[in-house]
Every structure is written in C-alpha cells, then in structure tokens.
C-alpha cells in the first residue's frame, strides 16, 4: 500500500502531563510511520509547550506550533494551515490511538476509495498505559454523501461507540477540508458544523467498527463544565447563523433537528438566573419545534424534549435532571 503522508493535528492547552505524554507517544509509536505530527501549543501557561518541544527534538516528524491562546478551534485551524499531508487526522491531547489505528484507517480509506474514514472509539474514565493493537476483525460500511449527512444530523452511531459528530477519530482526505475552517466563535457544535461541510465536499464515507480511538473522559472541557460561560451564547448565535444559512437547502430538514438538539444542550448549561439568555434560546426552539415533531427521523430524546417544552422549559430542565440520575 502506498504510504501517503498523514498529518496529525493535536491542539494542546493545560493538559495534564501524563495524559499529554501518552497521547503524543501513542502517535509516535504507530505502526504507520509516514506521519507529520503537528503539536499546537495554544498558549498553554504550564509546561505543555516545553514537553512538546522535548518530543520534537527526539522525533523529526514532529513540528510544534506555539501560539497565543485562542481556543481549540483556533488551534486546529493553525494546524490545518500548516499541514502538508494527503490526509488529516485530529487527536485530542488527553486521548490516545491504538498502535495500528492510522494503518487501519489509511487502508480503509484507500481500499474503499473514501474521502473520510471513521473509526469507533473506546470511552474510558481513566487513561491506562497499555495501548495494544486492535486485532479484532473490523467491519466496514461505506455510504454516499446523503446517508453520511443523515448519520451526522441524527447522531446515528453506525457501530458501537462510534461518534459521528466529533472531529477526532476521522481520517479526512485533505482535499475535502483544505478550504474549510473551524468556527472560532463556537465551543459547542463546531464539530458538527465542520463535519457537515466536510461531508458535503465528500462523495463517500466509510465507517469502521474497530475501536481505534481511546477517548479519555476528562472533566475540563466546556462540554463537561457546570459553570456558565459567555462562550455558550456565542456558540448559540453562530449555530443559528449556520442553520439559517442552510435554510431551504437539500439537507435543511436534517440540519434543523441537530441544531435544536445542540440548542437544548446549550440551554441546559445556562443557569436559570440568566433569564435573557435562556429566553433567546427558548424563542428559537419554539419557532422550530414543529419541524422536529413532524420529522420521522428525529430521535426520541430530542422529540421528548420538544414535547415537554410545550408544558414549559422548567419541565425540560427537570426531565434532564431526572435522566442524569
């Protein structure tokens, strides 16, 4: 098999040293060796930048990009602009790859002539040092653009523990994303928007059942944060702009369901005392909830939230508090 150059982009900010070292080493030790490893130090105030420089001195495939802090989307954008690879793979700095992850993804992309190859992942509460190869025979499914958009919009996993909306765990042919960038004003929903445009540029997408990506659950991201951040409303405003820009397009009915789902996610992270912010999201959901109810492909969870919203948004909060117990 031709060894295409594959660019690995890792955004780094205030990552615990043990996690960071394991993440970098899981890439360095891949069975597939023709790699360009871009470690993007997003102005981390700790020793992350020094650790990256240390690895770069040991491995000439590594390039470190030091930049002022701008968030994960900004870091990924810097990495994409600097990448020379035929394919691009994003890895988060507290996660890991199995030793043959890139080899399997590259083989899958080439053998299936796919623009995007997506693997399943293993969710772990805590990272472990062992990082064995994945030897279970993988099952693959190749779909055309329209089905891939539906899998994305309705969060259909295809295989166990496969994450359709995340950007990690996906090998992108550079041609389908080289003119794209992450929305730097979004901290929730930006992966969905990026993947939507990427799939719109793709002809085929292949899903792989192998759990090649190890997702370590670390409660430091905005997605896991329980405190209010103004960035939440920025994400909401950008989400609405995106949804409205796709109004009356081929996939507009699919998009609205996912955007309502994300709007609920943002809403539930905003304390009730921020009444003005909550009200804006409520108005958006009310304006579009009939479309979700009428959509036979919409998932049970988002439909339940929409139906309960007719009773009141206080009931929506109680429903999700009950569901989290």
Provide a concise account of the structure shown.
The protein is an alpha/beta fold. It contains twelve helices and nine strands.
Could you walk me through the main structural features you see in this protein, from its secondary elements to its overall organization?
There is one protein chain. The termini are far apart. Strands 1, 2, 3, 4, 5, 6, 7, 8 and 9 form a nine-stranded mixed beta sheet that branches. The protein is of the alpha/beta class and 325 residues long. The chain is built from twelve helices and nine strands. Strand 1 (6-12), helix 1 and strand 2 (35-42) form a beta-alpha-beta unit. The relative contact order is 0.12. The radius of gyration is 20 Å and the shape is globular.
Brief descriptors of the model:
9-stranded mixed β-sheet, 325 residues, alpha/beta
Largest sheet: 9 strands, mixed
- The helical percent reads 40-55%
Shape, per Cα inertia axes: globular
| Unreliable parts | none
Strand segment tally: 9
Overall pLDDT metric:
93
Strand proportion, as a percent range, falls in: 15-25%
- Structural class per helix/strand content? alpha/beta
Return Rg in Å: 20 Å
End-to-end Cα distance, whole Å, is 49 Å
Number of helical segments? 12
Topology:
Blueprint: E1 6-12, H1 17-28, E2 35-42, H2 48-58, E3 62-67, H3 72-82, E4 87-90, E5 96-97, H4 101-111, E6 116-124, E7 140-144, H5 145-153, E8 170-173, H6 174-177, H7 190-200, E9 204-216, H8 231-245, H9 252-269, H10 275-294, H11 300-311, H12 313-324
Parallel strand pairs: 1-2, 1-4, 2-3, 6-9
Antiparallel strand pairs: 4-8, 5-9, 6-8, 7-9
Helix pairs in contact: 1-2, 5-7, 5-9, 8-9, 9-10, 10-11, 11-12
């Amino acid at each position: 098999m031709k060894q295409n150059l594959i660019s690995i982009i890792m955004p780094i900010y205030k990552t615990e040293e043990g996690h960071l070292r394991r993440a970098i080493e899981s890439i360095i030790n891949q069975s597939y060796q023709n790699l360009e490893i871009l470690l993007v130090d997003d102005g981390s105030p700790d020793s992350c930048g020094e650790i990256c420089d240390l690895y770069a001195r040991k491995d000439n495939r590594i390039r470190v990009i030091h930049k002022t802090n701008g968030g994960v989307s900004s870091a990924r954008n810097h990495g994409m602009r600097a990448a020379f690879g035929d394919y691009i793979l994003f890895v988060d700095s507290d996660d890991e790859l199995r030793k043959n992850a890139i080899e399997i993804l590259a083989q899958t992309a080439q053998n299936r002539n796919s623009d995007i190859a997506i693997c399943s992942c293993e969710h772990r509460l805590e990272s472990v040092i062992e990082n064995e190869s994945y030897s279970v025979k993988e099952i693959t499914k190749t779909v055309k653009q329209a089905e891939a958009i539906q899998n994305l919009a309705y969060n259909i996993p295809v295989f166990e523990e496969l994450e359709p909306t995340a950007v990690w765990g996906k090998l992108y042919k550079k041609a389908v994303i080289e003119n794209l960038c992450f929305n730097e004003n979004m901290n929730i929903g930006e992966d969905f928007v990026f993947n939507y445009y990427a799939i719109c540029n793709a002809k085929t997408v292949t899903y792989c059942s192998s759990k090649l990506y190890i997702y370590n659950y670390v409660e430091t991201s905005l997605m896991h944060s329980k405190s209010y951040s103004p960035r939440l409303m920025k994400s909401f405003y950008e989400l609405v702009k995106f949804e409205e820009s796709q109004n009356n397009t081929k996939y507009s009915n699919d998009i609205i369901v996912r955007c309502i789902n994300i709007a609920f996610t943002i809403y539930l992270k905003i304390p009730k005392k921020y009444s003005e912010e909550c009200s804006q999201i409520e108005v958006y959901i009310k304006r579009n909830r009939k479309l979700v109810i009428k959509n036979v492909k919409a998932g049970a969870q988002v439909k339940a939230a929409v139906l309960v919203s007719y009773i009141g948004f206080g009931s929506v909060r109680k429903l999700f508090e009950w569901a989290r117990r």
